[in-house]
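User: Good morning. I'm curious how zinc ion would be positioned relative to this chain. Could you predict the structure with it bound?
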Amino acid sequence: MDWASIFIHDTTWTLAAEIVVRVVVMFSMIILFLRFTGKRGVRQLSIFELTIILSLGSIAGDPMFTEDLPLIQALLVMALVISLYQLCTWLTVKYQPFEDLIEGKPIYIVEGGLLVLEKIEKGEMSHDEFFAEMRQQGIEHLGQVRVGLLETDGEFSILLFPHDEIRYGLPLFPHQYQAVKQIDSGTCYACMHCGYVDYIPNPNQHCVRCECKDWAKAMNNEVIE
Ligand SMILES: [Zn+2]
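Assistant: Good morning! Here's the predicted structure, ligand included:
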């Protein structure tokens, strides 16, 4: 193996100096262009924004060390991408259908203490992901949740029931989210697939909502603040 070729190849001091200039210029341009998009830093990116970031990364990265790539071409491409971004942003503000197309729509995951069935069945959302999100917000069971919404940037918005409307619901923490093997009469059980709560005669009862037959003991305690 030719180590000199791997690490140095035909690098000269002149080329090294050129790389320094290229990196400084492209680095400054990325910052400038990103400021130009009007974004104030990044927490969660929508798919659309992620696309922009990825294209910018590639456009900005290559000219940093590719000798025969004039910076002006890279800058031109960056300017174009940013203009397209601006145009798309403008269109999303103007036309709702366009926004739905490139940003997606917020999705209801929980309504009235129950998981929205079609979302789970379509596989748009895994239990684990959403349960973890709710647990981090101090929610113990679905009976506390009035609305759970998945925003287009991947964040969750959660509205809780007021204290006097908290009902029995599916537990979200692993120790309580366990399929029961026998039924105590007079106890509420929650379907582990969809959150439906019922008094069931035996642990093999099918859920009337989703046909599934795994039941966990339902909880109805209040949110601890
Ligand atoms: Zn069910």
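Residues 13-36 form the longest helix (24 residues). The helical segments are 3-7, 13-36, 47-65, 71-94, 96-103, 117-121, 127-136.
Let me know if you'd like a different ligand tried.
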